[in-house]
Write a structure and sequence with these properties.
By secondary structure, the protein is of the alpha/beta class. The chain has a domain of 147 residues: Rossmann fold. Helices cover 30% and strands 22% of the residues. A seven-stranded mixed sheet has the order 1-2-9-8-3-4-7, sandwiched between helices. Helix 1 crosses helix 2 and helix 5 crosses helix 6. 33% of the residues are buried.
Length: 213
């Protein structure tokens, strides 16, 4: 038992006990929204990975791990964690990159002309070098894995893919690149946590530091 701000005390306790993982329950659709609660603050502030379990619990026979990526170093960290899990469960890893077609990320401004100019998102072929760079040096040996590229709103596409492939866990970084015409993490991870039916494991970058409010 502790007194104080719940999320602060939970994070301090996890550090004191050298916890490797914080597991929290997500609210159902009929309950108070997950984000904006103590859980939201844990998700954003925790120093260690956080697993949010809502509708479907993590099975001891988990086989499919979905790993969204924006090709950032944070996404690579999430990929490394997912690969370790896949080895432990003798499962497979599916890497997913979403070409986000949201207009707020596809508009550039021609200041000289004073008009907005839409930027076409890159094609799957154009991002192949980024796929190669991201996958290089990952410990993929003896792992069943595949990669795919989808189009649409990032969080929606991730949750849809998870449902289609019946993913057991979504493993996602919480601080990736933002403001790009293709993928972003961070706020996307929060949206995925809100709507995914399977557990979501969020991974912090190694440089992240907790600051008291």
């Amino acid at each position: 038992m502790r007194k104080g701000k719940p999320f602060v005390e939970l994070i301090i306790a996890s550090k004191a006990w050298l916890a490797d993982l914080i597991v929290v329950g997500g609210a159902s659709r009929t309950e108070e929204p997950f984000l904006g609660s103590t859980n939201e603050r844990i998700l954003r502030k925790a120093l260690v990975p956080v697993m949010v379990v809502a509708k479907k619990p993590l099975s001891v026979e988990a086989k499919t791990f979905l790993v969204p990526t924006d090709f950032s170093s944070c996404a690579r960290k999430a990929a490394e964690e997912a690969l370790m899990l896949a080895k432990s469960f003798s499962g497979r890893v599916v890497f997913l990159h979403v070409l986000d077609l949201n207009p707020s990320y596809t508009i550039a401004y021609a200041h000289e002309l004073g008009v907005s100019v839409p930027i076409l998102p890159p094609s799957p072929e154009e991002i192949e070098p980024e796929w190669e760079a991201f996958l290089s040096d990952l410990p993929l040996e003896k792992i069943d894995w595949e990669k795919c590229t989808d189009e649409g709103q990032a969080a929606t596409a991730i949750v849809h893919q998870a449902e289609q492939m019946q993913a057991d866990v979504i493993v996602i970084g919480t601080h990736g690149r933002s403001g790009l015409p293709h993928m972003l993490l961070g706020s996307v991870a929060e949206k995925v946590v809100r709507t995914a039916s399977c557990p979501v494991l969020t991974i912090r970058p190694e440089s992240f530091k907790f600051e008291l409010p």
